[in-house]
Design goal:
By secondary structure, the protein is an alpha/beta fold. It has a single domain, classed as Rossmann fold. It contains 5 helices and 7 strands; from the N terminus they run ββαββαβαβαβα. It binds guanosine-5'-diphosphate and magnesium ion.
Length: 194
């Protein structure tokens, strides 16, 4: 699939605004600031298609990108400490609405920061995906920030952390040096056509 021809489609702040699903979708989930927008820009080979925000968690929206009969979905980030209770409720409403609207979700790409243990929210998200039966992979972001020994230790720690999910794909990724980009493109292609 040509991932160079995707375009921004729309953003929504409440689930009532979501359009019915008429195309397969691949969704991207993760905590605010994990590097989701950077990953989308890198994978889609665009400089600033998905805005790279310097104010994480500021607005809760779900963003759609469309191309080649496929939608890529930038799910709202979670876990940002300074958001209000109202924003947290908006987040939950939007996520629940998204996952309950009968969509053709081919794959969820779950991002975790490679430097740290997955957060409680990360694990809640992964358990939800697993229990609900969505195919998912884990992308470990910001791999460029680790030295060689930290890198090796974190691959091992993450492998143990997610062991119970069977042969789950764990992909180190860096939007800075491009590590993992081709692997993610290949997986998107495989699942989109599946
Ligand atoms: N070193 C490094 N920084 C990154 C990487 N990905 C994102 N960042 C930085 O992390 C911050 C959050 O990135 P962003 O893509 O907006 O995260 P989002 O909130 O998940 O969409 C920004 O300052 C990015 O420049 C990466 O792979 N390596
Ligand atoms: Mg973002």
């Amino acid at each position: 699939m040509n991932l160079n021809s995707f375009d921004y489609e729309a953003s929504y702040g409440t689930s009532a605004q979501l359009k019915p699903s008429d195309m397969p979708e691949i969704a991207f989930a993760g905590r605010s600031n994990v590097g989701k927008s950077s990953l989308l820009n890198k994978v889609l080979n665009r400089k600033s298609l998905a805005r790279v925000s310097s104010m994480p968690g500021k607005t809760v929206t779900i963003n759609f990108f469309k191309g080649n009969g496929l939608r890529l979905v930038d799910l709202p980030g979670y876990g940002y400490a300074k958001v209000s209770r109202a924003e947290k409720e908006r987040w939950a409403e939007l996520m629940e609405g998204y996952f309950k609207s009968g969509r053709n979700i081919k794959l969820v790409v779950q991002l975790v920061d490679m430097r740290h243990k997955p957060t409680a929210d990360d694990l809640t998200m992964v358990n939800f995906l697993n229990d609900a039966g969505y195919p998912f992979i884990i992308v470990m972001t910001k791999s460029d920030k680790l030295n060689k020994s930290e890198y090796k230790a974190q691959v091992e720690a993450m492998t143990r952390e997610f062991e119970k999910f069977g042969d789950l794909r764990l992909i180190p990724f860096s939007s800075l040096n491009g590590e993992g980009t081709e692997e993610i493109r290949t997986i998107i292609d495989q699942y989109a056509n599946n």
